[in-house]
């Protein structure tokens, strides 16, 4: 069923003459054999040695296969062959159309990226999908519909309030429209400006629309700081009331008052799961987050010294917050609030308020990196079987997670710290996100699955991106195939753009006019 649908899509794509990158042969080989691989199949099962045959976009055989006459062969030389990594929380909606090779992504082994996270998505979704279909990327892409995006469609600039019943009905219509256009579900960012004014009921009503069409609810919850536990309870209530699977984005405990409470947080999630809430989460492998300056002050009193003082203290002080982007004064970039306060001979609180005022005057806001998570919490989250790996980065990200997330988990958490076994880490990058999205034909190495594959060296794979050089490419990822086509080979992109737009149930979206 799926396959015939896929081949139909492929035929349609060919009919419409999708552009192929220069040097990418239109007459591609019938089949390809990968030999001498240690296969990590995505299920978490132990590695096993084997050969994998690919015909067009699919895996057609696994085992002791011999090359056929004239068949191209890739010798894996004992390296690990895994399903391509599925990044369920990726912010490439602006970067990918400008950088279709997505070097920072494929060099990590990412073969599918899911955009539209944190409540913000392209709109209308269909326009974005059509642009990507006309100019395909090296990677597959799926998208969520953003709650804040929809909310702003209906409320315009008058969003700093709860919405009325008729307004929620209008939002529901837009949600339904997005689902018809191929959205994977509803995403929210309830800690952010537009989403934060929404009532729980508003989110539940939109989540119900997504649930009816088989979508999921993916959320950056209302608070990841002092009120993390209240926000978690609201999230679980939304999942229960809307009867919708929940994906908790970038699980963390982000302020001093909640640090070290991962066990307690996990207990609440475990009891919800026992009650039948279909709850999963993703986590990035860093102890610092990347956001905007206003998110620091939860009561939104950005120029009230008392509120600002409390907020800065909750993150351990201004030395934990570094400016990464500030167009009114680029000289602030790379410096902490503590640094800048010292240089200006003012207090950290005054410096924060100065940054807000300079930003407001220029109708912008500083982007920041806040270092406020602790390793024991990150470890506890990663060791839960329902926590997957996701980057929260993307093409052009100014946080090292944008280019380093997946190799960092393999190099640091698997090889150096032994927090996870290799097969379990691979499962968290492949089959688990596929299960979350209800995709059966990706995220696993088996006959009939799509040939999204990563070949890497488990002894050398490591991230190299840092806070000062966030786009440095990882090493150790040798080859990456997307839909059976090599996109990354020996440290370079091949120029091929075989990525598809993918919808619910993993369906390849057909190209139409
Ligand atoms: Zn987020």
The percent range for strand residues is: 15-25%
Q: What count of helical segments does DSSP give?
A: 16
Structural class: alpha/beta
Low-confidence blocks of residues: 1-26
| Biggest β-sheet description | 9 strands, mixed
- E-strand count: 21
Share of helix, binned: 25-40%
Q: Note the gap between the termini.
A: 24 Å
C-alpha Rg (nearest Å): 23 Å
What hetero molecules are in the model?
Answer: zinc ion
List keywords for this structure.
six-stranded parallel β-sheet, 16 helices, 19% strand, 513 residues, single chain, disordered N terminus, nine-stranded mixed β-sheet, binds zinc ion, alpha/beta
Explain this structure:
The protein has 513 residues and is an alpha/beta fold. The protein contains 16 helices and 21 strands. Strands 1, 2, 3, 4, 5, 18, 19, 20 and 21 form a nine-stranded mixed sheet that branches. Helix 4 (125-134) links the parallel strand 7 (110-115) and strand 8 (140-143). Helix 11 crosses helix 12. Mean pLDDT is 94; it is low at 1-26. Zinc ion (ZN) binds at residues 118, 189, 220, 249-250, 392.
